[in-house]
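Case study B.
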Amino acid sequence: MNHYFSEIFTGGKSLLDGLVVTFKALISPVVTVQYPREKIDISPNMRGHIDLVKDLETGQHRCIVCGLCMKNCPCGAIVVKGEKQEGVKGKVLTIFNLDFSKCSLCGLCVESCKKSAIDFSDEYELAAFSREAFHFDLLKRVQQDDTK
Amino acid sequence: MDFIVDIIAKYSLVRMLISFLLIIAIVMLNAIVMGYLERKICGRIQRRWGPMEVGFHGWMQMFLDGVKLLAKQLIVPREANPFLFRMAPLLCFTPVAMAFAVIPFSESFYAMDLNIGLIYLLAMGSLNVFSILIAGWSSNNKYSLFGALRSVAQNVAYEIPILLSLLAVVLVTTSFNFKEIVDYQSGLLSFWMCQPVAFIIFLIAGCAETNRLPFDLPEAESELTAGYFTEYGGFSFGLFAIAEYGNLFIMSSVATIMFLGGWNGPFGLDFYSGPILGVFWFLLKVFILMLIMIWVRWTYPRVRFDQLMNLSWKYLIPFSLINLLITAFIVKII
Amino acid sequence: MGTLTTRFSTIQDPDEKHRFLLNMGPQHPCTHGVLRIVLEMDGEYAMGIDPILGYGHRMHEKMAECRPWSGFYPNTGRIDYGGAIPYNHGYCALIERMAGIEVPERAEYIRVITVELNRISSHFLGVGAYVIDLGAFTPILYMFDDREDILDALEDITGSRLTYCHHRVGGVSKDIDDVFIRRTRALIKTIRSRFDMYDRLVTGNIIFQKRTKDVGIIPVEMARRYGATGPVLRGSGIGFDIRKNEPYSVYPEFDFDIPTGENGDAFDRYMVRMLELEQSLRIIEQALDKLPDGPVMAKVKRIKLQPGDCSFSVEAARGMLTYYLVGDGTNVPYKLKIRVPSYSNLSLLEELCKGSLIADLVSAMGSLDLIIPEIDR
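Model:
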């Protein structure tokens, strides 16, 4: 009999306690942002798809076509090709394609590049209607991009 | 202008038509306002905004949802019973609209003044079990059947505490008429003060009658996909939702009339009362109760089925019976 | 996919003609993933339970046999997406044990810090999902709000928020900086201050207690028979934790307790997870205080996996995780076997919930904290 009443009492108190907690949350400020009208700043270390880095001094990319990123990629997403041109030491980059639909964002390519020629970008709003939109031509991107 | 007032005064048919239209309008308006409030408050409790897209702070959200529901196809499953399947939402909506006919919004603003107003209202409120059972059965879906069966037991079990707690008030006022009950409460004394136990029991049992959390087993979203209205889409589902909010309004208004003093102003001051202001006080009290129900919904988990039955038979009914006995005792002596 | 058949193609007992089969199908709000459970129902009681797996099979173990050992890192993050860093850790430690590589101390401390942070976020996710199965829609959102601090801190050093790929053989790929340390100390304080709120909102709530106490009681010998580990086993009273029983990495240097339950019901498992949050915070604090300087990556030459086998166990958020590798002399593994904790925990379900109500089945399954893609791998 005692247990019956004590249960009612403690139960009722716990229920009111819960109501107080939600009431406090009701009058607290909101923690979400109205995306896409407001956006949060992204951490600079976030992993987007990779991009060739434009060297600030030379204005060119730093890739020496060693092919380590292509070898180390577990998903086969990178295709790097170069050719020997006369008068230039080492290989010259002709094709650098990234198939982002296969990429798993592991970062092994960035880690294995000895010249720091590739790095993560910070693009995350990549919705498209076709697969071809995710086949990036990184050489064209670094040559076109004057604002970086 | 006088011509129109003449017609209204002479032909009761015209009055019936106008009140019918007004009732439907109020039911729909209530669903829209309550649906919007529920989503906003749910959002704020969860520390997010709720609907924000359409209009300022999303006030048009429910209108657009209604349009979307109207535009969807009403699919009837192949093996379902076609007549019963289509009847169930209408059967859910009609008692709600009929019960609204009797609710007095103020001393002179009501559709019907029945001498047995309370009994009529409770009878309408118990008809929603029918529709849930029919909906669950005719859907030819095991999940819906589960929801329907649970709902029958739940509604039947919680009718009794409702009736017993309201009986305690009726014993004191010796009348079923809403007007007389509210007039009895003018002045400082409202019934929630002299019948606190009955008030709390009525609120809990009312929550269970309208299938709201923590008693929403018939439509338990995480156990049984959607319970008894799994198979309904489009405006049939919309009718179920309108009926649910309508039931909530009815329960809250019964609580207001019986326990909180209906359309009287606070502290019995006559200055603030009157036929028009009475509507304002009534709606304010009803909305406060409905907001409490919404607040409760987003705080607690769901009770299990046998615990639900336990709560009714072992806790609510004994307390309401004892309350009734004590009230009868005091009324007889005093 | 072939035919995924169930044992219950017909009702077993000819006398029980009123029973029926209910399919808690692959798409269900509360099965935490794509799990199909066929229930033989007698009214509201589940008399027979048959879980059917395979809807989320992604062939991780086969992928390990087709690419060099260094290409398996991204897979480890995706086996259990709720708590991915222990999976990284286990795989890297396995290859290190096989090849005999010494990991620098700073890297070990960073590994422990990230593992414990991930354990906290995984417990928040699991407990939040459990409570939403029971019908309370708000605690999960409060827990997600607390998780945001952890995810932001981890995003800064690993680059990802959910499927981490941070540990490498020989250390970690990125060092932590002062910003991370400051953030972590701040979030330790924030999370500690929220425990009281969860106590009042969830733990003390009488409806929650009635749904979880005396539900899904796992006796000790049943847990032993099925090989249950993690909070499922600790809720029944056995304090078995790989971090204390077979210590690895730098865990012996930290001072922390292993919370256990008494009865083995769903409430005890929930309490074990909530108490483990505090212990993880203690470990992180001690690790931040004792953090040494130094390199974070050892010099790793080309590794060829020598012929033979090797195994390594770590304590993931859900239990004991074991990697078993068979090498054949090349740098591509011959066979990799991953023993995930949720597989053994799920196998308990049939014997545990035979003859119980559906509501109790839902409650017991949620308290086991399963992640189905991890079971299917």
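The first helix of chain A runs from residue 2 to 26. The remaining cases will be described in the next quarterly update.
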